[in-house]
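Shipment paperwork, digital attachment
Item: protein structure file
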Amino acid sequence: MTTAISLPQLGESAVEGTIVRWLKRVGDPIARDEPLVEVMTDKVTVEIPSPVAGRIARLLAEEGETVPIGTLIAEIAVDAEAARTGDRFSPVVRKLAAEHGVDLALVPGSGEGGRVTKHDVLAFIARRSAAPAPAVNEALRRSIAEQMTRSYREIPTAWTMQEADVSGLVALRATVREACEQRTGVALSYLPFMLTAVVDGLRAVPALNSRWEDGRVVRSERMHLGIAVALDDGLIVPVVRDADRLSFVELARAVADLVARARAGRLAPDEVRGGTFTVNNTGAFGSVLSVPIVNAPQAGIVTMEAIVKRPVVVTGDAIEVRSIMNLCLSFDHRVLDGAAAGRFLSAVRARLEAYQPETDLVGGSDASTS
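Attachment content:
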């Protein structure tokens, strides 16, 4: 008796997935809920567990092959004895293995009858962490290439830039950074300040929180901000959902959590879907000017460039050294024109320039919702 395994639905909008790596080979035993295959969709790699215990009878998709959701990808010869006696891995062991991406078939067991224990899994994780890093994920690179090519080909992109004097923001962050980390456990970057400013910009110009669909502009009712995160072998864009409903502290926590899990490869597929606008922190790499590619089907992407001290002419024609950040916006010219794009950047700039050392980041005066 065999059980057919189909590629399951991996999120509400997914229509296909790429077989990254089979975790079992033909003839291998497999327990119920044991990881069978790694599948990538929308730049996120997830493990698909086996719904039954048995042995691998057939693998029907090649590594690197992209197949539609619902496609038959494997067959498992059901192990009646295993089905009767249940899983050979305890729930604690399975949970630990899932959290760290461990193939339990590779873990030697020291328990009774060769059973894999929690200590066996922890020892395996320790040995693996000391091993050389894996090669670049070619499937991830291909997914990025396809998405960027599609965006570049389909979207008539325009670009604009404004300078923001963020001297007050720099002073504020220096003042509250240590206390914020002690109170919230979050290292305070400039990103949550930028997200708060982008929320203001999208409120001022809702057209940027839209998409071009079937020959018309479709407004997004909710504000889900994508955060571009650089990985060792690519790029991923996790989404802060309902960013306009979060306080500054909640935004800071959400960003820190998403970035950390993105770099650890622990995002769920739904956490990289549904973004309505994207923010990119190119300044983290020293960039002062960039022309980002719009992340289709969104209408825009804004970059926060490196903060650089420059001599600036201020009131009374005096010259002062100020902290300046360039804000670069690429946008879909089908959705809006340059004047609206300029209003958006002006609103973002105004919010960033309004930060001063005395700004309250916890109280209502700087909550994203009022």
